[in-house]
Specification:
The protein contains six helices and no strands. With about 100 residues, the chain is mostly helical. Helix 2 crosses helix 3.
């Protein structure tokens, strides 16, 4: 997941600029990783638009990880395998969750 967060914006940069400029590039405390999380959240929202049950389940999983903070196994795995600070991981998951509506 850390790899995806680090690279998602770079892979989809043209589409991000053309279709989602405000939602992706106008984030508070902008970083490429946070912008990638925003774009990923927007994409997941579209992918799951016809399946409200799975969208709700995914949001519940993300919310659980956010509430666990330092005790989140997922967050700790991302920390161990990527060059992302904990606060940035937490911010990314909060942004991701906000974009999945």
């Amino acid at each position: 997941m850390g790899f995806i967060l680090l690279n998602y914006l770079n892979i989809h940069q043209e589409r991000a600029v053309m279709e989602y400029h405000e939602e992706v590039y106008k984030l508070e405390n902008f970083s490429i990783t946070k912008a990638g999380a925003a774009l990923l959240g927007l994409d997941i929202n579209i992918l799951l638009s016809d399946n409200k049950t799975n969208k709700a389940k995914l949001k519940a999983i993300i919310e659980t990880e956010i509430k666990l903070k330092e005790n989140s196994i997922l967050f700790n795995q991302i920390l161990e395998t990527n060059h992302i600070k904990f606060d940035d991981i937490l911010d990314c998951f909060q942004i991701l969750n906000q974009k999945i509506k």
